[in-house]
Write a structure and sequence with these properties.
Number of strands: 0
Number of helices: 24
Structural class: mainly alpha
Order of helices and strands: HHHHHHHHHHHHHHHHHHHHHHHH
Distance between the termini: 53 Å
Helix content: 55-70%
Strand content: under 5%
Radius of gyration: 25 Å
Shape: elongated
């Protein structure tokens, strides 16, 4: 008590270090009742007087809405101030601001410079990110070479990048697809030479099927490649396309290129035509789904709809077609908008074993603002923890809007970011909307 009283006296007397220490103690409840508002008050006092650690912690307060409203632009400003005093942690976090294009315009050369500086000062996380940047050739970038910067990001998926533009990717290797799946499922893909065809192929295929069923796009791209190449699974171009289409529905940034390369082959088109005419359900699903995304213009909307309806009316129904037709009714694509019909189709898909359908039902109930929307949040939490990209995005929406949780904008940003880093444009647009709602008019914060 005596020590705390003395600290308060020093802080009130203008001692910058004491002000920061007092704020920190309020923040963690050390010797004082935890009080984030008082913590923010004292830390900001110290930050405004130039203490770099206080400036860094002020940025953290605004990032996580601790005692202050969430504001990524104020966080950026404090990271910048602390960075200017060569505070390594601030240099690292300031550098990250130039990677995602949310607060300021993306500038990979500037990001590399700042992260490199922090790594040189011994910041461990900066060392890891710097190694990642170097693996992707970012160290060679010139700040003036915007074309090269765009090329580097357009062919990259990873921890600190948001990747959407895949047109022009010069092929995707088997190891890249497998490593991306391993990383998402929590394994150290970068250090592993293991590939899907090495051992226990049947067990691995079963595991992949379970992961894909949740709605993990990375699992679908791997399954597609296995069937396309006949690696550890029977070669089946139609099934490969079906998995790529499922991944595309989940906004996989890899799927469009993989799908494009596959369907623009004579062998694929011959097999698709023959099997569709023979009544093969997978083939009819693929043709209808290709028509829906305008990869195939031979079928009109009515013909594509007929193929899906035949599949869902079959006994047993084609599970992927139930899921796809539900998406059509949920979005009004090629059919009249009917969310209830979409949910009914997804319930049938769920009964057929597709866990992704449960997620889509939960998402629909939440987005429709149904009275029991909060009751579906546990499903989203569980499936998000297992890798469902839809659930990650929907959880962000729930946290942003206080559905099933107290409103939590930093939590929403975190959940949206997880999905956006995996390629979800829906999640990225949600992030943009949140950031744009607070965007200052300063030229520094203008982004494309």
């Amino acid at each position: 008590m005596i020590e705390t009283f003395a600290l308060m006296q020093q802080a009130n007397g203008g001692n910058v270090s004491a002000q920061h220490e007092l704020g920190y103690r309020y923040l963690v409840g050390r010797g004082l009742p935890a009080d984030t508002q008082k913590a923010a008050e004292w830390i900001l006092r110290s930050a405004e007087r130039g203490m770099p650690l206080a400036q860094f912690n002020a940025a953290i307060l605004y990032t996580h809405a601790l005692g202050v409203p969430w504001n990524p632009f104020k966080a950026y400003a404090w990271f910048k101030k602390a960075s200017e005093q060569t505070f390594a942690s601030a240099e690292f976090f300031y550098g990250l601001q130039f990677l995602d294009g949310l607060v300021v315009q993306r500038d990979l050369a500037r990001a590399y410079q700042l992260v490199s500086r922090a790594a040189s000062a011994g910041h461990e996380q900066a060392k890891e990110v710097l190694a990642d940047l170097r693996r992707r050739g970012i160290d060679t970038l010139s700040a003036r070479d915007s074309r090269q910067q765009r090329s580097a990001t357009d062919t990259t998926l990873g921890l600190v990048y948001l990747h959407f533009e895949t047109v022009g990717d010069a092929g995707v290797s088997d190891s890249t697809l497998f490593h991306e799946l391993q990383r998402e499922m929590g394994n150290d893909a970068e250090s592993s030479d293991h590939t899907p065809d090495s051992t226990s192929q049947s067990e691995e295929l079963e595991t992949l099927m379970k992961e894909a069923s949740i709605g993990v796009p990375e699992a679908f791209t791997v399954l597609g490649r296995l069937h396309e190449r006949g690696i550890g699974a029977y070669r089946d171009l139609i099934r490969a396309a079906m998995y790529y289409l499922r991944a595309n529905r989940l906004e996989s940034p890899r799927a469009p290129v993989l799908l494009y390369d596959l369907v623009h082959t004579d062998a694929f088109m011959r097999e698709l035509t023959a099997r569709s005419l023979a009544g093969d359900k997978d083939a009819r699903y693929v043709w209808a789904a290709l028509a829906a995304i305008e990869f195939d213009r031979l079928l009109g909307p009515a013909q594509a709809l007929k193929l899906l309806e035949e599949n869902v009316s079959a006994n047993p129904p084609h599970a992927a077609s139930l899921l796809e037709l539900g998406v059509w009714y949920a979005t009004g694509r090629n059919v009249q908008l009917d969310p209830d019909k979409a949910i009914a189709l997804w319930r049938r898909a769920s009964a057929a074993g597709l866990r992704e359908a449960d997620v889509r039902i939960a998402v629909a109930e939440v987005l429709l603002g149904r009275p029991d929307a909060a009751n579906h949040v546990p499903v989203l939490q569980e499936e998000a923890s297992k890798g469902s990209i839809l659930a990650q995005t929907a959880l962000g929406y729930c946290l942003e809007n206080g559905i099933g949780f107290p409103m939590n904008k930093p939590g929403a940003v975190s959940s949206y970011m997880k999905a956006a880093q995996r390629g979800s444009l829906t999640a990225y647009n949600a992030l943009k909307r949140m950031f744009d709602s607070l965007r200052p008019l300063d030229e520094e914060f203008i982004v494309d």
